[in-house]
Amino acid sequence: RLLNAGADKISINTSAIINPELVAEVSSRFGSQCIVVAIDAKKVGNQWEVFTHGGRKSTGLDAVEWAKRMVDLGAGELLITSMDRDGTKQGFDVALTKLISDAVEVPIIASGGVGNLQHLVDGV
Prior knowledge:
Blueprint: E1 10-12, H1 14-18, H2 21-30, E2 35-44, E3 47-52, E4 57-62, H3 63-73, E5 77-82, H4 94-103, E6 108-111, H5 117-123
Parallel strand pairs: 1-2, 2-5, 5-6
Antiparallel strand pairs: 2-3, 3-4
């Protein structure tokens, strides 16, 4: 409904985890340019894991593999939030952003941790 109502883009997070084919369905109908898949990630051991519910519920999904799958299904952009940094004002988790950016060919929006202007510069 939002796209039919004039929204340029929509963000999908938990709904994509519950039903990944939703990304393909919406992308095929409206185009990948309007599909942003939001990925909330936390470092667990040596890997980045996808979480839902504000970082409280683990999905067991590897964030990099999930990002690749979402792009394969039609996501035109990814919104990557480091749940470890969100709200800390300590700066973006540049390592997470780079890891996913290097793995996919779509624009990445970094989120989580900005506390000053230099953090924004560091994120670019």
